[in-house]
Amino acid sequence: MTLLKDLTIKKIHDGLVNKEFTAFELTKEFFDYIETRDAEVQAYLSLDKVGALAAAEQVDIAIAKGEEIGMLAGVPMAIKDNLLVKGLPATAASKMLENYTAAYDATVIKKLKEAGAIFLGKANMDEFAMGSSTENSAFKATKNPHDLERVPGGSSGGSAAAVAAHMAVAALGTDTGGSIRQPASLCGVVGLKPTYGAVSRSGAIAMASSLDQIGPLTKTVEDAAIVFSVIKGKDPLDATSVDVVYGDELLNPKLEDIKKLRIGLPKEYFIEGMDDYTKGEINKAIEKIKSLGIEVKEISLPNTKHALSCYYIIMPAEVSSNMARFDGIRYSRLDALQENEPKTLLGIYHEQRGQGFGKEVRRRIMLGTYVLSSGYYDAYYAKAQKVRKLIKEDFDNAFKEVDVILTPVSPTAAFKIGEKTSDPLQMYLSDIFTLTLNLAGLPGISIPVKQYEGTSELPVGFQLVGKAFREADILGIGQFYERIR
Amino acid sequence: MTHITEETLEYLAKLARMDLADSEKAKLAGDLEEILNHFEELNEVDTTNVEPMTGGTAQRNVFREDEAETRKEMNGSADDIIAAFPSHERGYLKVPAVFGEQE
Question: Top enzyme class of this protein (chain A) (predicted)?
Answer without folding.
Answer: ligase
